[in-house]
Amino acid sequence: MPTIAVLALQGCVERHRPHVEAAGARFLTAKTPADFEQADAFILPGGESTTMLKLIAAFDLEAPLARAFAAKPVWGICAGTILMAETVLNPPQRSFGVLPITVLRNGYGRQLDSAEGEVDGYAVSYIRAPVIDEVHADVETRATRNGKPVWIVAAPHMATTFHAELTLDFPSPMHRAFVDLVRAHYKP
Ligand code: GLN
Hints:
Elements: E1 3-7, H1 17-22, E2 26-30, H2 33-38, E3 41-44, H3 49-58, H4 62-71, E4 74-77, H5 79-84, E5 85-89, E6 99-104, E7 115-119, E8 122-126, E9 131-135, E10 140-145, E11 148-154, E12 157-160, H6 173-185
Parallel strand pairs: 1-2, 1-3, 3-4, 4-12, 5-6
Antiparallel strand pairs: 6-9, 7-8, 10-11, 11-12
The structure holds glutamine.
């Protein structure tokens, strides 16, 4: 059974546990390089990407995370998508660059523009979400909103600009899809 670690520096972490377990994987919260070693894949949760970047720098995690992301599947959610993007605008910001996409932070506007949505018949939440403005080579778009991708896969990585973990119907189709992606890359 693969172990999926949620980066637990900041943001929405525990809500993933029932989804990950219902999708047939082990759930771990990860904060240290030793935790990263235990993980077969990562979820970069929603939260605040600027704060996450500050904590990553403060705890000296940038190099260990870059190594982990180069070797293992990663699912970025909202702020996590921003951390994974090759190019971040509005304003420009550092990122790990593991997904060939350009994102606009807070691309739908301010807090009041947060919204519920539905993807594959499943309720999801857009919370000060980024907009994926451009996708480059080898990116599969699984869902769109207003003509822009909101769920993409560039194997072994995946990103959603929405939160699926807040809906209490386990597992979400996105957790199931990520566990499938992880299984395809998992060598016990
Ligand atoms: N607006 C946040 C950011 O720029 C992302 C919000 C979220 O993750 N729900 O990091």
